[in-house]
Amino acid sequence: MTAGGEPDPGRAPAVAVDGLTVRYDGAPVVDGVSLTVAHGQVVALLGPSGSGKTTLLSAIAGFLAVDAGEIRIGGELVAGAGVHRPPERRACGVVFQSYALWPHLRVAEIVAYPLRRAGIGRDQAAARAMELLGRLGIAHLAARRPTELSGGEQQRVALGRALARDPRLYLFDEPTAHLDAPLRARLQAELAEHRRRSGAAALYATHDTAEALALADRVALLRAGRIVQVGTPQAVYERPVDRRAAELTGPAAVVDLAVVAPATDRSILALGGVRVDVALGGERPPAAGPVQVLVRPDWVSLGGPLRGQVELVAFRGPHTDVHLATAGGTIGIRIPGPPTVAPGAWVGWSLERAWLLPAAGPPSAGSAR
Amino acid sequence: MLLALVVVAAADALGHRAGATRSGLPSTGRVGARGGGVGVALLVGVVTLTTVVPFVALLLTALTRAVGLPPVPEHWTLANFAMAVDGPFGEALARTVVLGTVTASLVLVLGAVAAVAARSRARALGTAITLGFAVPGSALAVAVLLAYGGPLRDTLALILVAYLAKFWALGHRQLSGSLDRLAPDLVRAARASGAGPVDALATVVAPILAPSVVAAWAIVFVFALHELTMSSLLYGPGTATLAVVVLGVQQLGDPTVSAALSVLLTAIVVAGTIPLLLVRRAAVRPGPVTPAG
């Protein structure tokens, strides 16, 4: 978690979206979304492409008109009920996936642009822009044009422009999606750090699970224009509402087994004729009988009473992913360091924890996946 | 156009041969150093034969007192230029520049309308506009003459209609290409940075589109300056364009004066091309731009 503390109950939320619907050609792309970002908090909008993340951010920024519902920024109504405040009068700093740097301006001019719009004098704006560029570590690029910059440099300039607006709310639209992996990680950390220092709230759209879990105070799962779950990163990882939410929030294996002796804390489960004592959680208390459970790689370990055959071994550097065919389905196990088992081998494993998935999946008609 | 085709075809054939001898694969992209040298020599040769030699002949004829005299300095004169300017040339020049200016300006407006309309799924419009460019000038001119020859007989408006139909595609292509490059996020970023709609138009949209607008204008202007096919079919008393006058003088059998006219026509067209080259250069190597605001 990167946020600077608990939400302040005395302040209006940085942004409050209520029953928001946005349609394209009649079809809802954002469908009745309600979401609140408390002052100073980061909420990640996690969803596959086409789930409506960009549309939701565009509606909040004021680029799109809303069809139903309302948006309040800092307690003020900016959209809905016949109100549409234009983007320049909503205090949002937007960082685009495409960077959206103006090709005819130099870096220093781009970062000075919002300052000039805010009525700051030319010299003062230039000085402030240089200071921001220095803070972002790109002061040496001040005289360059966007086409002369790398992807990472371009996104730092775009962040500088958003910071120059000094908004109460940042809207990040997959800002690192176009960058290669090592740079992405570094820029994510930088974005988080600069956002944290500014003390402003942020709504951060991404389809990258690790990114969402790492930088957000709360994660909102978006699917087919609807929010299916909102919670802390740990909550959405450990207690997903359904199977597809589970798949969206990390590596997920679904295992068929039987509950033999249900209990509130640890239950006795049976898998392939072997009985094990497992911390079984669920939306509802478990009942005896066949169930489907979610098993995360960090909830299982090699060695134990259960049996499985190694299907696949993938060495990832710091850890190794092992896929194990079991009586209840294939599970993934993450072991530290290099591989210790080979494909085809029969091994023992143990299950420490599992999460009960709803018996029948929710209606999936019209979903994006 | 033909010149370009010949050169491209020749270079292409050469490239094929050079690539084939080396790798046995048909490769047009990788011409060896030797093949490249031969290609450049061939290019220079063809350009000399087709452009440089005729132009030197034109210039020398324009400067020489009479046809048949050897083009040596003691026979040189500027009288041909004086006669050319004194005659119908001056009027035709003014007329042509006005026609070119009006055509280029209207084509820009029409091109912008078409480009915006095409964005909102009016694909057929783009096709129709392109068709106007593809139809032979002679056919288009006859069509315009049949349709408007009555009310617009012997007016520049008649020629203007034909020019607009012909050159609309040039403006449309240029503008829609640059509009496509103007990503919506660029304007959104300006609005999200505190710029109102007019401010965003002035500080972001206009500067980004300006080079292509100037280029589109200059291209149409230059095309209109030297258009001959349609003009020669549509002109009447008092509406002859520069190219038509050049053709007429040549047919009247005064090669020295028509040569002088041709030199002047070329000079004007080249002058019209200069802003185009400047804009192209500016697009490649950007000069200083005043800070935003």
Description:
The complex is a heterodimer of chains A (369) and B (293). With 369 residues, chain A is α+β, with helices and mostly antiparallel strands. Chain A has 2 domains: 232 residues, 3-Layer(aba) Sandwich (Rossmann fold), CATH 3.40.50.300; 106 residues, Nucleic acid-binding proteins (OB fold (Dihydrolipoamide Acetyltransferase, E2P), Beta Barrel). In chain A, helix 2 packs across helix 3 and helix 4 packs parallel to helix 5. Chain A starts with 14 loop residues before the first strand and ends in a 13-residue tail after the last strand. Chain B is mainly α. Helix content of chain B is 78%, strand content 0%. Chain B contains 11 helices and no strands. In chain B, helix 8 runs antiparallel to helix 11. The longest helix of chain B has 41 residues. Chains A and B meet through strand 7, helix 2, helix 3 and helix 4 of A and helix 7 and helix 8 of B.
Are there runs of chain B of 5+ residues with pLDDT below 50, and where? 1-32, 284-293
How far apart lie the N and C ends of chain B? 44 Å
Percent helix range of chain A: 10-25%
Tally of separate helices of chain B: 11
Q: Which sheet architecture does the biggest sheet of chain A show? A: 6 strands, mixed
Into which percentage range does the β-strand content of chain B fall? Answer: under 5%
Largest sheet of chain B: none
Summarize the structure.
Chain A is an alpha+beta fold and 369 residues long.
Supply the key terms.
heterodimer; A: 369 residues; alpha+beta; Rossmann fold; OB fold (Dihydrolipoamide Acetyltransferase, E2P); 2 domains; six-stranded mixed β-sheet; 20 strands; globular; disordered N terminus; disordered C terminus; B: 293 residues; mainly alpha; 11 helices
